[in-house]
Structure formats: structure tokens, C-alpha cells
Amino acid sequence: MNELTSEPMNRSLLGPILSVSGVAKTFVLHLREGARLPVVNGAGFELFAGECVALGGPSGAGKSSLLKMVYGNYRVDAGAILVRDGAETVDVARTSPRRLIRLREDTMGYVSQFLRVIPRVGALDVVAEPLIGDGVPREEATARAGELLARLNLPERLWSLPPATFSGGEQQRVNIARGLIAHRPLLLMDEPTASLDAANRQVVVGLIEEKKRAGVAILGIFHDTEVREAVCDRVIDVTDFAQAA
Amino acid sequence: MTNPIATDDAPLLVAEGLGKNYGARIGCRDVSLEVYPGEVLAVVGESGSGKSTLLGLLSTELAPTAGCVSYRMRDGRLADLATLGPAERRLLMRTDWGFVRQNPADGLRMAVSAGGNVGERLMAVGWRHYGNIRDEAIDWLGRVEIASDRIDDDPRAFSGGMRQRLQIARNLVTRPRLVFMDEPTGGLDVSVQARLLDLIRGLVSELGLAVIIVTHDLAVARLLSHRMVVMRQGRVIETGLTDQVLDDPREPYTQLLVSSVLAA
């Protein structure tokens, strides 16, 4: 993978990891007399291995919604979201729930803005879980989780505690570690540095750069200009996809 | 599992056009669904939506008015459950299935010791050696966080949360492939609920169980299930990935359900 990313020709020969075309989405709010809330229309772009692309545009332009559609968290009214999964290509907009679960397990990672806390599970186990799911022995998975949390400056005394009582920044670091610990060819990131201080933002920038070197394609929302300029190769303006129907 | 036919791509349980009428009243109608090995399916809806009737039909405790339920037997064949004899069905319930009920008193033998409650299921599948049964029972009590010195107490002396954990041990000790759960955390204090949910979550993934869980609590569905079925007035009105249905509900009734909870 590493050689490919240093050679753009090879990269495009392989084709995009993610290809979005003609995607449209409108929320229908039945509790508000069926009010229609258009989100995007005719959204289209491609994402290749080893590049990090930011979704840009003002709040409410639909960045987060688009990211959630790519992950299959929000449904799509029209268009295709093709994700390369090994030798297969999966259309997230149309595939079955079970295929989508497998795609998420093998290929597509998501770092959300907030950690969804699981009662009673300690931070170290929260972080190690995706690796254990990949079949890595528990001991090795836990060791790697510890290394990552140490890099993100999470005090070791917190590792065994469930993150429910952590501060926003501490929870976000647990969340980032969980999202980045396992290799996934496509990573979706929703403001991964929103509640972090400058030092930890730099750690995350370093982690994202490592992912890019490993050939991971990253699509994200990065409000922090400094972070965006450090890691992103280009910006897709989501307002281009707004309500043109 | 030594089963060459029932791969992950073959459903474990298939329901087709299931319906049940109670006289003129409709319990549920035209429900079709599939459950795959290792998959947790949540059935949600308000009281009276037909979700418990559906669970009764799927587990053959109720006889359908219409449709059928098939199950992938250990030999790989998909059997119409209505065609099984009573003995074969009983064996299935004791070995391959579990049923965790909302009220532990309905799923436990309240006058039998904790160890006996767990050991009984083992004896039903042919375990005979007392020492082995007791060791296995102690092991399972430990897995559901019941101290081994409580093995000879009967569940009447247990708290609600402990009783529910004992019911889970009793059901899982025979290593079933499919477990039905009817509001397993209903009526418990929030802290007790959290502990039980975490325990169920861990055991389900560790043992690779398929689970059909009926709950009115969307947070429980979010935490435990992969896929979700929303029921209203006896029908399935929306299905999909759990996070998709909860975060982007499409049907008016689902939108109402999701918007009515404080935090799901």
C-alpha cells in the first residue's frame, strides 16, 4: 500500500476507494406536519487511497449528514455511494444491513464527535475492542490500546475506568484511539479535534499522517484551520451540493 | 460448531407471513423476518404493538393463525417448526434455544437452589456426573457475577437483578444458538439495568449468540442490537440497521418513538 500512495498514477489505476454520485437526501419531519428539510442534492466526489479530504462549508450545509450517509447511518433518497471492499464494491445506499455491518467491520471506520459510552467498560477495553473484533489476541490488543492512549496523553490512572465520568477532551481522545487503532482502508472523521488542546491536536495530526502513509483514505470535517491545513489534501465544498433540484 | 451447511450466510430462523388473531382482535399480522447466526435483532414498539405476540410465535409458544417459522437445525436443514413433533421441539428448547423472560420467576424454578436452576438444564441435555454439573454451575454463576457461596440458596433469597442474572446463566449454560429475550431489563433499577446490559452484551459477543430481544426501551436496543424491527398495531412498519432506524427514522410513528425518549 505504501508504494502505491507515493505513486499517484498507480493510485488512480486502482480506482477510488469511495465514489459518491448523484446523492440526494431530504429529511421529512412527520411531527412538523411533514415539513421537508433538504440536505444535499446531486452530491458527487471521489476519494483515493492515501489522501485526506475535508468536507467544507458553513454550519448547516450538510457536512455531517453527508458523512453519516457515507457511513450508512443516514439513509439516502437517490444516488450511489460506492465503497471498495477488497475485490468487491458495495453501494452503501442500497446494500443490505448485514452487508453494511460487515463493510463497517472490515473497511470503513468512523470517528464520531462524541463517545457513546458503554456502561462499566473501561477506557482501555473500549479502545482495544475493534482490534479484538479483528481477531488480535486480547493481550496484544490491550497493549496497543495502552500505547495509543499514552500517545494521546490520557493519564494511565484513567485507563481502567469507564469513560462516562471523563471530561469532554478525555472522552474524545478515547474515541479517537478507538477509531484509529485498527486498520480500515476508509476513515470518516467528524471533527476529531474539537475539544482538544494544542498539544493533543498535534498528536492527532501525527496519527492522521501515519494513516495516510499507510494508504488509508480519509474523509472528514475539520473546523480547526490549523489541523485542516496540516492534514487535508483538498476541500470539497458541500454548498455545491445544496438544494439545486 | 461442526456444521458445514449452516454458514454465516444462511439464516438461523426465518418467519414468513406470520399472523395471529385473538378472536376478532389482531395480535400481529403478515410479519416476515430472518435472523442470522451471531446477530442481535431488536423488536421495538409500545405496549400492545404485538411485539410479545411475535416473540411467542417465533419461539413456538403460540400457534400462528397464518404463516410459518423455520429454523436451521444443527444438521443444517431448515425445518418448518410446525412439522416438528413435541419431543423434537422440547429438545430444541432445552438445547439450542434459551428464553429470558421479563419476570425471573417465570423463567426460574423459585424453590430450587441457584445451582440446581443451572444444573437442571445440563441434566436435560444428558450431563450425569454430579461434580461436573456443580463445577459448571459454579463457573456460570461466576460469569453472571453471582458469588459461588450462593450456589445452594434458592432465588427467592435473591434481589431482582441477581434473579435475572441467574436466569441468564440457566439459559446460556447449554450453549444455545438462539436466545429469545422479553424485556430482560424491565422493572430493574437503572444501575442494575446497566450492569445486566453490559453482562448480556459481553456474553452475546463472546458466545456468538443470535438473539431476538423484545424491548420498549430504545437505549437497550441501541446498546445490544445490530438490526431493528419497529412494530405498530401488529405490523412491522420499519426495519433496518439499529443506528439507521434510530438516527434517521422514516415512518411517522418511529419518528414519534425516537423523539419521545430523553436520550436513546
Verbal overview:
The complex is a heterodimer of chains A (245) and B (264). Chain A is built from 9 helices and 9 strands. With 245 residues, chain A is α/β, with parallel strands linked by helices. In chain A, the strands form 2 sheets. Chain A has a 5-stranded parallel sheet, with helices on both faces. Chain A has a 4-stranded antiparallel sheet with strand order 2-1-4-5, with helices on one face. The N terminus of chain A is likely disordered. Chain B has 264 residues and is α/β, with parallel strands linked by helices. Chain B has 2 domains: 185 residues, P-loop containing nucleotide triphosphate hydrolases (Rossmann fold, 3-Layer(aba) Sandwich); 65 residues, no CATH class. Chain B is built from 10 helices and 10 strands. A 6-stranded mixed sheet of chain B has the order 6-7-8-3-9-10, with helices on both faces. In chain B, helix 4 packs parallel to helix 6 and helix 5 crosses helix 6. Chain B is globular and about 55 Å long. The two termini of chain B are 36 Å apart. Chain B: Keywords: ATP-binding, Lyase, Nucleotide-binding.
Strand order of the largest sheet of chain B: 6-7-8-3-9-10
Task: Give, in order, the helices and strands of chain B.
Answer: EEEHEEHEHHHHEHEHEEHH
CATH homologous superfamily label of the largest domain in chain B: P-loop containing nucleotide triphosphate hydrolases
- Number of extended strands of chain A: 9
Q: How many helices of chain A?
A: 9
Return the average pLDDT of chain B rounded to an integer.
Answer: 91
Considering DSSP H and I runs of 4 or more, what fraction of the residues of chain A is helical?
25-40%
Radius of gyration of chain A over alpha carbons?
18 Å
Helical fraction of chain B: 25-40%
Quickly give the structural class of chain A.
alpha/beta
User: How many strands, which pairing sense, and closed or not: the largest β-sheet of chain A?
Assistant: 5 strands, parallel
Biggest chain-to-chain interface with counts: A-B, 18 and 22 residues
Structural category of chain B: alpha/beta
Tell me the span between the first and last alpha carbons of chain A.
40 Å
Write out the strand line-up for the largest beta sheet of chain A, numbering strands in chain order.
6-7-8-3-9
Sheet-strand content of chain B, in percent, reads 15-25%
Cα separation of the termini of chain B: 36 Å
Q: What is the overall number of helices of chain B?
A: 10
Q: Flag low-confidence runs of chain B.
A: 1-7
Pfam families (chain B): ABC_tran (PF00005)
Protein name (chain B): Phosphonate C-P lyase system protein PhnK
Family (chain B): Belongs to the ABC transporter superfamily.
Domain ABC transporter (chain B): 13-258
